[in-house]
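Subject: sequence -> structure tokens, single chain

Hey, anyone have a minute? Need the predicted structure for the following. Not urgent.
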Amino acid sequence: MNSMLDPRLKTAFSPQRIAIVGATEDRNKVGGRPLHYLQRFGFRGAIYPINPKRETVQGLRAYPSFDALPEAPDVAIVAVGQEAVAGVIDQCAARGVAAAIVMSSGFGETGAAGMALQQALVAQARRLGVRLVGPNAQGVANFQTGAVMNFSTMFMEVAPQDGPVAIVSQSGAASVMPYAMLRERGVGVRYLVASGNDADASVCELALAAAADPDIRVVLMYIESLGDPAMLAEVARVAGARGAAVIALKSGRSAHGAKAAASHTGAIVNDDVVVDAFLERHGIWRAKDVHGLVNAVELYLAAPPRPAERLVVMSHSGAVGVLCADAAESLGLPLAELGAPVVKALAAIMPSFATAQNPVDLTASLMTKGGMYADTLGALAADSQADMFLVGVPVAGEGYDVPGMARDTARFAASRGKPTAVSAPQASVRDAFRAAGVPVFAHETDAIDALHQWSRHGALLRQAAARSALAGAVATVPALPAMHAAAGSDEPLLSEADSLALIAEAGIPTVPYRLCRSADEAVQAWRALGPDVVVKACSARIPHKSEHGLVFVGLQTAEAVVDAWTRCTHKVAAMGVPLDGVIVARRVRGRREFALGVRQDPLFGTVVMVSDGGKYVEALRDFVVLLHPFCEADVLAKLRSLRIAPVLAGVRGENPVDLRVVARAAVALGALAAAHPKAIASVDLNPLIVGDEGQGGWAVDAVIERAGMQGAHGHE
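Reply:
Had a minute. Here:
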């Protein structure tokens, strides 16, 4: 068993004995619906309704209390008023119940008072050794065993069927929406969990219990607040080890959405950009909406996702072929160039007016030449350049051998071992292909989206596997003399001079500079570093010097340097803050400015940001985020996703920008901060001036915030 998986939660997924506290005769009430489902869906274990006012409930013997039960239940469903829940948990512990599914509401989702009750309930359960799902939980359902401990109305309307999919959600509605969509497509679901407030067992821990089942091939998650990312990383690791996929819908992307998610569950909202980086790092695909959560599931079940690029489109409609080609290009999926032997074979099969290129147009001749469909697939099977296939069937029916087309497609997909999708707007046509085991979609855009997700998710999984070895590597990082030099200070920020010294020791190239404490020293520095220098005031209290007129650029004479020195000292004295000295730095030029930032995230660890530099960083928001540890190749791949990437690569005869120096700086900065989380709270390196490829670059300015000192002083 996985070391992070609590056996009590595994029991909660596959119990043999279930007690329902608050069991009612009315199957349309929270305490009655699970009891109805357990009997309706064939649960073969023991069911113990607890209701002191009745002798039977829904045809089963009722018991007045836990003490009256003939044996200890594995799981208790708690459907009583808020005020009675704590007493029920005491009884569960006394009887040895492993886990309680608390459906009762009135806890953390209601505000501060409810949160206090919830925290007390969790403390009580942990002290007594009982795991909680909830409170405010819709419940847990195992459709393989019939242990449907869930009160959703959905299962009254949409019949369950066991299958290789698990749905684990913090929201009840967001658990049954994908369930209904999958069942409409004929896909079976084994586990469905709506965890509610996640007060004890989190949505991630419950997903791990589902992922531990070797029959589960796709785990779908709806997450409002990600409080234990290490557990989610373990879900991805356990699933990925056997080729299963994890797809997550994380709400709260927008400011209003984040606020609504917090009020819904009393949850802490995470920085959405960091969540993106975390999910990508661990090979978890992030869906944009519920439709995206389920759209590609049939492809995942047909074959584990893997990197793929080149697509072949085949249809008996030229318009559909063009639409598919357009949709594929918009997502960055290139159409494969069919090899000459394949084109020749296609030309021999198809009528002269058909198109023997990609997209392949069979024309309406398909209706009169039934064998042409299978022959065309056979010819395409010989093309080694094709990674994925899409068959568009815009219209079919009388005159078309649809069952035969479905069988031929299924055989083709099985023989090729490559993803093959079909788009068909007619439900009867989709039913025929689905019956043959072929992933089928109502719209060609959905099919293209699914193929794109399947292939890109495969790339994420491959990158995550390659990165796992890096995670265990220990980077060599320098000591912190600059930090030690400021140890006696209560300043929250290091001065620019100390910050530059520290990042230089970390291996980041910095602009040549000297910290000068007199005008004579400044002139000597100009003579050593000039003739073109920059003069800046240096004070830990003034991180943004240019805003106060404390940066002087392009000084080329001793007189100019002395004048800048004088103006810096007078201005800082007028501001009433300490002056560490004046920096004289060589003026460097390059092709591009970059900004690098680091912060310590309490959940995700060391976070590194890289962006186009300058004063418009926040306004333009053209940046990438990485989580330590990462390598130079990771940074370079991320930089290629920036909007300015084509400019960085060189346009109209320009040389490429030296992005390797940016990558090396990002890796070094992340390693430095990760090695000293108790000393470094954040780093702002802006700008890093970079030249053409091979010319290198220089960190020109940096500010390091000391850990534990945030807010000690207001920043100028």
